[in-house]
Known about the structure:
By secondary structure, this protein is α/β, with parallel strands linked by helices. It folds into two domains: 2-13 and 261-430, MOFRL domain (glycerate kinase, domain 1, 3-Layer(aba) Sandwich); 20-130 and 165-206 and 241-258, Glycerate kinase, MOFRL-like N-terminal domain (Rossmann fold, 3-Layer(aba) Sandwich). The protein has helices at residues 2-18, 21-25, 47-59, 94-107, 124-127, 137-150, 154-162, 171-176, 209-218, 224-236, 260-273, 289-306, 335-345, 376-381, 384-392, 396-402, 426-430, and strands at 38-43, 66-72, 83-87, 115-121, 180-186, 252-258, 277-285, 314-320, 353-359, 371-374, 406-407, 418-424. α13 (335-345) packs antiparallel against α15 (384-392). The radius of gyration is 22 Å and the shape is globular. Residues 428-432 have low confidence and may be disordered.
Amino acid sequence: MAATRDLLRDAFEAAIQAADPGAAVRPHLPPPPERGRLVVVGMGKAAAPMASAVERHYAALGIAPEGVVVTRYGHAAPLEHLRLLEAGHPVPDEASQAAGEALLAAVDGAAADDLVLVLVSGGGSALACAPLAGIDLAGKQAVTGELLRSGADIGEINLVRKHLSALKGGRLAARAAPARVLALVVSDVVGDDLAAVASGPTVADGSGPLDALAVLDRYALAAPAARSALERAADDGEGAAPRPDDPCLASVETRLVASNQASLEAARAPLEAAGFRTLVLSNAVVGEAREAGGFHAAIALQAWRHGQPGAPPLALLSGGETTVTVRGDGGRGGRNSEFALALALALPPAAPVAALAADSDGIDGIGGHAGAFVTPTLLQRLDRRAARAALARNDSLTVFEEADHAFVTGPTRTNVNDVRVVLVGDAAAAMR
């Protein structure tokens, strides 16, 4: 079993190395402005290493940038010149609101000769919270909590967030006008939609408050404070996000620098070195985590029994971001541990299958874990009746902790969605 876990862990670590935020931003850093200031603002779980790489790059040129970045509690790293803040995630807290105000203050007054460098990564929506007029922090916390429990995907959640924010949906870039703005993005969203990562602080997507209200209606969410603010914004247009063709965004460029697909490709190397054929199923797996787990199990069984879509030993890889609709009270886990438990329950005890499902940021839902392992030993020893009951109440982490199959990494300080590896065949079965 140790060899199985080691190989799965090696694949995950290769994926994380490919998403190293500092290495990702360095090739994209522009020359410093000739006459103006270099202002750096950042938000997200990868903000600290991105900012550190920026400081080192410009220090070699004798330039000290000014500005502020915010990351999640526990994801900090030392910075020399830039102010580093920590805040709450996935629900914003008072520190998130203070961080949002600090980011806006940092770009206010930027001049045409200035360069504003914006470092964007997943988690920024909650970490930097600047409530639009008509809603306060408590209202944003309430709607965020409702959305997270509803089963809404991250794109839907961020659509609501951006239309309740004075920062997102291109508003940060608009506040920085007429300065040149360059945003560097480590993507944690399916399809790498730059308007969705951290709710697009530099990207206008053309959506409006009515689109956000449609999300609340789709999931039958009460969210009275959010509804009131969105209805007011729809009626009078106050605080509306800029349109994609707004002149205030004429000097704004947003670039993708790291993605889930690149990480999945990197994860193939250690698996192929161990003798596994590799197949990337998709970097865009969405929907309910338990359903995705069952579907991956079906593919693994097809490979084991029929050699399709590839003959064992075979490694199946996938990414994306599933969701969890909370059905129980007091359950512990996250989308990756729920995926892993559903996968295990869909496999017979004799299946020669091992797997790892983990969040690339090292934090999967509630608990100090990144995800969970499935091994042939677990399949043979699993109390399936108890495990089904745990899955029904969203308590997957308890099952994996009791079986010593929880996967713990601590914060990785990057975020490119989930990484899943399923090993099928004799090689997996032999490495118990």
